[in-house]
Amino acid sequence: EVQLVQSGAEVKQPGESLKISCKGSGYSFTNYWIGWVRQMPGKGLEWMAIIYPGNSDTIYSPSFQGQVTISADKSITTAYLQWSSLKASDTAIYYCVRKNDGKNWFDPWGQGTQVTVSS
Amino acid sequence: QSALTQPRSVSGSPGQSVTISCTGTSSDVGGYNFVSWYQHYPGKAPKLMIYDVSKRPSGVPDRFSGSKSGNTASLTISGLQAEDEADYYCCSYAASYTSLYVFGTGTTVTVL
């Protein structure tokens, strides 16, 4: 079974750093893109960025370029989303998604990671 | 890239049909046949329901169908069932300098 399993909920203070993870299993991790999608409280979905673990090729939405960093460690089939200095506005649920190369849909989705930034 | 426009909510009785629209521009929905739809129960992982405008992944009931005309894509749920009550999001490939993909604003389907 193809699965994306994300790390657990996080509560952080403004200015702190954070790295959340997404572990893929049941498929060839290096042959699919992994993306990240944000859902702020009471809001819709926003596409953030995507990475190809096979060669670490990355594409960011301009809205998130410079705000977050995505990476992947193919040796442990895990992708990451990280912040160097969190803001209250980063409070959201973050989903990782899998995308086939050359295709334009996301399947499956991870279960989501709740990130809460509050002083 | 602005979010694609969806109605905030639609509703129908069991057995009826409902249609959710997803309006974009010629730079996204109208420019490519790469619209997908996702069903989202709050607190759960979203699920792919339709891809490439009208294709259904295996396991998705044929009550769900997709179409597109110009800059507007649509998701139709026929024979509405109680378990269809959820949020639905469209997504389009955009390939612009502003964003590679853009999601819709989301629609809550209520089964009366």
Q: Could you explain the architecture of this structure?
A:
The complex is a heterodimer of chains A (119) and B (112). Chain A is built from no helices and 10 strands. With 119 residues, chain A is an all-beta fold. The termini of chain A are far apart. The mean pLDDT of chain A is 96. Chain A has a 6-stranded mixed β-sheet, with no helix packed on it. A 4-stranded antiparallel β-sheet of chain A has the order 1-3-8-7, with no helix packed on it. Chain A is globular. In chain A, 0% of the residues lie in helices and 50% in strands. The mean pLDDT of chain B is 94. In chain B, strands 1, 3, 4, 7, 8 and 9 form a 6-stranded mixed β-sheet that branches. A 3-stranded antiparallel β-sheet of chain B has the order 2-6-5, with no helix packed on it. By secondary structure, chain B is mainly beta. Classes of the chains: A mainly beta (119), B mainly beta (112).
Q: Extract low-pLDDT stretches of chain A.
A: none
Pattern of helices and strands of chain B? EEEEEEEEE
Gap between N and C termini of chain A, in Å? Answer: 40 Å
Biggest beta-sheet profile of chain A = 6 strands, mixed
List keywords for this structure.
heterodimer, A: 119 residues, mainly beta, six-stranded mixed sheet, four-stranded antiparallel sheet, globular, B: 112 residues, three-stranded antiparallel sheet
List the helices and strands and how they pair.
The complex is a heterodimer of chains A (119) and B (112).
Chain A: E1 3-6, E2 10-12, E3 18-25, E4 32-39, E5 45-52, E6 57-60, E7 69-73, E8 78-83, E9 92-100, E10 113-117
Parallel strand pairs in A: 2-10
Antiparallel strand pairs in A: 1-3, 3-8, 4-5, 4-9, 5-6, 7-8, 9-10
Chain B: E1 9-12, E2 18-23, E3 35-40, E4 47-50, E5 64-69, E6 72-77, E7 86-93, E8 101-103, E9 107-111
Parallel strand pairs in B: 1-9
Antiparallel strand pairs in B: 2-6, 3-4, 3-7, 5-6, 7-8, 7-9
